[in-house]
Amino acid sequence: KNIILAGIKTLTIHDTKSSETWDLGTNFFLHDDDVASHRNRATATVLQLAELNPYVQVNVSNILLDESTNLGFLKQYQCVVLTETRLSLQKRINDFCHAQQPPIKFISADIYGVFCRVFCDFGDQFEVADPNGEEPKEIFIQNITQSIPGIVTCMDNRNHGLETGQFVTFREINGMTELNESVQHVTVLSPYSFSIGDTSNLTPHLHGGIAVQLKMPKLFTFEKMETQLVNPHCLIVDYSKPEAPLQIHVAMLALDKFQEQYKRLPNTWCLQDADELLRLAIIVNETLENKAVVNQEIVKWLSKTARGCLAPLTAAFGGIISQEVLKALTGKFSPLHQWLYFDVMEILQALEDTRIEQFQPRGDRYDALRACIGESMCQKISNLNVFIVGCGAIGCEMLKNFALLGVSTGHERGMITITDPDLIEKSNLNRQFLFRPRHIQKPKSYTAASATLMINPQIKIDSHLNKVCPSTENIYSDSFYSQIDVVITALDNVEARRYVDSRCVSNQCPLLDSGTMGTKGHTEIIVPNLTESYNSHRDPPEEEIPFCTLKSFPALIEHTIQWSRDKFESSFSYKPSMYNKFWENYKSTENVLQRMQTGESLEGLFWQSPKRPPCPMQFDISDELHYNFVLSAARLFAAIYKIPYMKQDMSNETISQLLSKVEIPKFTPSAK
């Protein structure tokens, strides 16, 4: 789903298994009639997947993929992702992908109960053009020393944000002009200074200059799975238990061996199978180059929950795997290198003394969930009253997960209340996957509710079009909040979050907040009397009041005070001191006027770094940038004023003839 929304060219989904009731708790595009007719899972979902993005070609494959399959057909793909595949077949396909020139990017992923893993192999030499995707930093320079090494100091003690090992180039340096356009290796000395190469023999730095961070390609070397299995390179995501990834690696290798020997997964909450898995884990650990301490708790819980599946965990890891696919195809952002292990064992701690019968399958869509958390917890989930504020990208994901979990499906209690005043826009469709082109200009909340009911008809949803703000407190009153078990915010602004948080605090209601910005995201769980609230932490105050606020929109007494201070300092301190300093450097009025007439920038009085004097640009019809600017502006004017034109009117020859007859007046600066 995520890969299709990202807009790749072609995607082939492969599956040989038929739809089962069990799948309804994890696959949101499968329905009861697919289970009743035993439809192939790929065939049952392909049309709905293709509907997500009409620009992506989605194909289906049902061929048998085993140890004897000829893997030559994989050469047509740039990236292969394996799930629910035996380890022996994973290794065989990985060997094939790694051996190709260029290598086929390989990703394998598995989720067993509350444990998951991802493995990436992008070849011996995988070059990443942009390791972090951030905009290159530009640093205004205060001073550069003549020394070994040369030390660069930032203007006004501003943080440069660089890291040792990065590269910068320079421009607009006055004096020490040898550095302009040169590439220098950075060694960070402090947040406000860094060192570069030898500047002792360069001309002295006079003033100004800008250091621009260079995006340098980074090369990653990946090993094949066969090698990584015995000496894994694991990413640590939870520093409270840095040893966990290697311990889960051992446990999952033992699970692979268990499946190989017994042709099945361990039975749900079977103590005998847990003991056997522990025995295999001890044997497997001895084969590793970097041996781990076998964690009996991890092995036990893996065995007990291996047949189960948590929908939110699959959603989160599906997102991670999709990101790795996009990294593999684009060469942008640093890839996962090479194993990622993750667990949510914490949710099992309260289930230690629960009877085994609680976890046994009952033949409904919640069996995969029940195998992990038990029937009693499933009942609690079904009776929840949830309030979701916002039905954007995060709101859609939350509703989908709630439908798979069976939230608010209880017979006597349970209701999801969602509200969002917005209508669906075309720009929403690339991330808000519950919506389709036919839904444009329809209410988000109503449409999302209908789509959620398609995933799970048992769920109960009440959708609204209201804002959550002081003017709607007659609807979302204290009595309303007193009936809610948890509030979910899927909002796009801070003030709305602060308001909802204040209502939750006053009504002692748990709050789950989350948000994204580009490639970054956050989530925060707020529990009454246990954690701080959202309003308890704020961004640091701005160092200065924005100039536009002082000039045009003063709204507070502080604004008027600051305006007066600025006026006083400008008139009686800053301007006089600048004037006096200038005439210390330039003694003759005639000399200053002569240099101004030649167009020279007199540092100090008129143009001071980081400001640079503007320079008029002469129009040149042969310059592609100039020509395209005129052509684009002409097209815009024609569209705005509804002036019809033919294709030949915009040809290079016609435009050039017209422009050659235009007399361009000489640029005269404004007298202001």
Automatic annotation (TrEMBL):
Pfam families with a match to the protein in the record: E1_4HB, E1_FCCH, ThiF, UBA_E1_SCCH
* InterPro entries assigned: E1_4HB, E1_FCCH, E1_FCCH_sf, ThiF/MoeB/HesA, ThiF_NAD_FAD-bd, Ub-E1_IAD_1, UBA_E1_SCCH, Ubi_acti_E1_SCCH
Q: Ranges for the Ubiquitin-activating enzyme E1 FCCH domain?
A: 149-215
- Keyword annotations for this protein? ATP-binding, Ligase, Nucleotide-binding, Ubl conjugation pathway
Reaction equations catalysed? ATP + ubiquitin + [E1 ubiquitin-activating enzyme]-L-cysteine = AMP + diphosphate + S-ubiquitinyl-[E1 ubiquitin-activating enzyme]-L-cysteine
Q: Which GO terms describe its biological process?
A: protein sumoylation
In which domain of life is the source organism classified?
Answer: Eukaryota
Q: Does the keyword Repressor apply?
A: no
Family the UniProt entry places it in = Belongs to the ubiquitin-activating E1 family.
Name used for this protein in its record: E1 ubiquitin-activating enzyme
Record the organism. Scyliorhinus torazame (Cloudy catshark)
